[in-house]
Amino acid sequence: MSLDKNGIAKRIAREVRDGYYVNLGIGIPTLVANYVPEGMQITLQSENGLLGIGPFPTKAEVDPDLINAGKQTITALPGAAFFDSAMSFAMIRGGHIDLTVLGAFEVSETGDIASWKIPGKLVKGMGGAMDLVASAKNIIVAMMHTNPQGESKLLKKCTLPLTGVGVVKRIVSDLAVLDVTPQGFKLLERAPGVSVEEIIKATAGNLIVEGDIPEMQI
Amino acid sequence: MNKVVQNAQEAILGIESHMTLMLGGFGLCGIPENCIAALAASDLTGLTCISNNAGVDGFGLGMLLRKHQIRKMISSYVGENKEFERQLLSGELEVELIPQGTLAERIRAGGAGIPAFYVPAGYGTEVAEGKPVRKFGDKMYLEEQWLKADFAIVKAWKGDASGNLVYRNVANNFNQSMAMAGKITIAEVEELVPVGSLDPNHIHTPGVFVQRIFQGMNYEKRIEFVTVRG
Description:
The mean pLDDT of chain A is 96. Chain A has helices at residues 5-13, 28-31, 85-93, 129-135, 196-202; strands spanning 21-24, 43-46, 50-53, 76-82, 99-102, 106-108, 113-114, 139-143, 154-155, 170-173, 176-181, 184-190, 207-208. Chain A has five helices and 13 strands. In chain B, 20% of the residues lie in helices and 27% in strands. The model of chain B has no long low-confidence stretch (mean pLDDT 97). At the A-B interface, helix 3 and helix 4 of A face helix 4, helix 5 and helix 6 of B.
């Protein structure tokens, strides 16, 4: 069985370490916050100017001056800090954020990522994605292994306009966990019940399979 | 010297068609609502607007778009706006998209007197087209240049007659950098407080950057996506 969105988020949550400062993108990455192991303290950054994102507010707590980068209302935890956009991206560009998790349309075997623009469709803009992928110490991409037509999104070379070049370190898809290495995608783990053959079939870029590939622990 | 003006109409005096404006805010959070309404009520046209986003249909910069007052937007993200899409596709509107952190730093650099600097964001992408690149260590960087504006229009929570500003929560966003980068900076505040009542330790924007200030009224503070738990 391939993983659903929550399954992908659960597996990514196992990559988090105590004390990490983390930026979670919109979509599946946001769900990661729900599965951070108990007893582990991480601080979530919102690039519009907050360290210490709390849960969504109650109706009474809703504050128009307190939103996340997806423009949803949020809360700030005790010990949170607010700051301006230049400071926020100084944190990101300066390498002070330990982990960035974001989605992608395509990833190449050399770690290129395409996530912001599809030719022929209306362009909305890259927001902070280019800054984040160019600067985070560790970037994990949360994505579906194939598109709805069954075509691989893990390619030799991206076909869509790039967000960053050679930046992706690890991918957690609905089928597998893979690292980007100088030789290509290295298969680390399979989703429960998914065979190595299925992953090979769904991966268009160079895939390295060495030894027994364990099932993910979720 | 008196920086205090009565209202948005007075604050925007001197803004002319075809000028470049900076407008603070992230989405609809922290936008200068009063000045945007005053601009929308004016006959100004051909404006270049530097703002992270372009508002939504009929609110924020969407009000200026609807009246075709904007010739060019310089932003990082312009979703959530149908009229924007329509004008972009029909060629009525020009848009320059800039990575968000690069946009913030270009504005900060404009205010800080730094003509150019290097960032890694956008290297190897279409953002890099035409820009000098340089290697530092083992990484490639793009040269980016400062941004300045004829008028910067910002929104703060509290301010005083000296022009000192304090922002609230994440409504700070682009306002603090933009306040530094305008030839003339207009600040609209929710509360204009007596000089001396703001703690000097807590000032975000020192008054030197602000030329005009007024207390705004009837803030709507629209929320794009109200999300609650439970």
